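Workshop exercise sheet. Pairs work together: one partner reads the sequence aloud, the other fills in the structure field after running the prediction. Swap roles for the next sheet.
Pair: D.N. / O.F.
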Amino acid sequence: MSRVLSASTALLVAVVLGILVSSGVALAQDNSGGFGIRIGEVPVDLADNPRASTYIVDNVPPGKRMERQIVVSSTMPERTTFDLYVGAAHVDDEGYQAEPRGATNALTTWTSLDKTEVTLDPGQEEVVTVSVDVPADAPEVEQYALIWMSTQVDEDNADAVQAVSRVGIRMYLSVGSGDGPRPSFSIGSLLPIRLDDGTAAIKAILENTGARAVEVSGTLDLTEGPGGLSVPAVESGGKTIPSGSSGELIIEVPNSGTFPAGPWSAEVTLDSGYGKETAAAEISFPDQGEGEPVAVTGGLSPAVWVALGFGVALLVALLALWRKRSPASAGDAA
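Structure field:
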């Protein structure tokens, strides 16, 4: 929340950026009602990309147009008018960052909405068309922006402190031919840590190895702990990493203040919407602070690798036995 003051208006702005990934809806909500914005129909060629149901994600060749439909809705207790507008954004080491209202970039100048204001009754929805016209000379890089839905300032009460809430949908638009550069990332190591309140957590060290920003989220599985303990899969938050950069994703284990140190078999699986990466390692949580980074294996816990090794050895032995017996069996048949 930030305070924006002008000569005639004291304005208290509450920026709501939370995305409910399960439904793909950004919501602003309080006890009296709320409002939201979500993606409409997802293009067929992006149906397998989970990000496409939450964000506007696409690759557009120079000189071409892209259109998407979004749906805005209100559960406010009375008929309410909202502003709709495109705002600039960027991605840095802190993640996906919204810029102040009025800031522009290339993508905001290419993007238009067929409605810049909507008035909704309680429970009403309305479809808005987002159009992006990419210039023929546009650079072949990824661009970022947000489509915002915002309550309005009461101009009749301009000298009062007013709460203005907004919710937004992120835009990730790369420019280029075909499907554009494919996002990719790797998990370099896992770092067991204890937070200040004693909560056990895993810090995944990530590297963006592609040419586009990548947003990852996933799960942590802890198994084969002391006394055979295991923990139900823990959902992570999301982390956006710029192209060519590294980042950290911390996954906290709920109710783990008295968690035993270990050792544990840890497996982290992260999904970018374009592909999954899994890393596994044996870890032990420190009493406080950070432990040592642990090198990872690519995708399966040590116990699973042992089981696979045993299975392969058994298969080789059975194949050798079969080949040894085959001539005798053929001779008996003759």
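Discussion prompt: The radius of gyration is 26 Å. What would you look at next?
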